[in-house]
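Case study 2.
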Amino acid sequence: MENQFAMLNPTDYVGVSFWIISAAMVAATFFFFVERDRAVGKWKTSLTVAAMVTGIAAIHYFYMREVWAATGESPLVFRYVDWLLTVPLQIVEFYLILAAIASVATSLFWRLLVAAVVMLVTGYLGEVNPENTTALWGYFAVGCAAWFYIIYEIFAGEASKISAENGTEASKKAFNALRMIVTVGWAIYPLGYIWGYAGSGDIGTLNLIYNLADFVNKIAFGVVIWAAATSGDSKESHS
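Prediction:
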């Protein structure tokens, strides 16, 4: 009977990165769920969402690593399905932090969510047919515009003002750290896109960069929530 599982080449560093991140996502999920008992009030919900982000990512990485090991092709569909589920959950984290300290209009949440979905859908449409350079870079520009809007909202828009005016020490630390991840950490994705399609043209390097970005943005994102949820002053904002 033919072996159904592809063996991982020890010199395939992209494949190795898929395996490492699969394990890291599982470990992070377990950690966030266990640490939920240390949190108080609404911080428990925030840690639950953080665990959901890494848990969903772990499931998709199990599939992505098999696709890569078996075919050497980019697991594009699995990756974008993962992002379409986890990125909106990260937007939920921002809303949860703000809603715990002030009355927040639901329109803010929907604006951020729509921008995140536009960013992801246009990224997928650009990557699914890279031979069409007009679509590749046109959709990339639209996706970047949506990302810039999110950055504007969390640095200078309504979300930023709510945090600055109503936030406690714990919530402000979490909010400020999360927006730095969205700005600096999320920048890895468009840099990978540019490198993969305008630079080296190496699909392996593209996936390696995306894997690194997921490791930083999903796990570090959750660690920020955990640090705020278990800090000494977390009871002030989420009691």
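Residues 13-238 form a domain with the Rhopdopsin 7-helix transmembrane proteins fold (CATH 1.20.1070.10).
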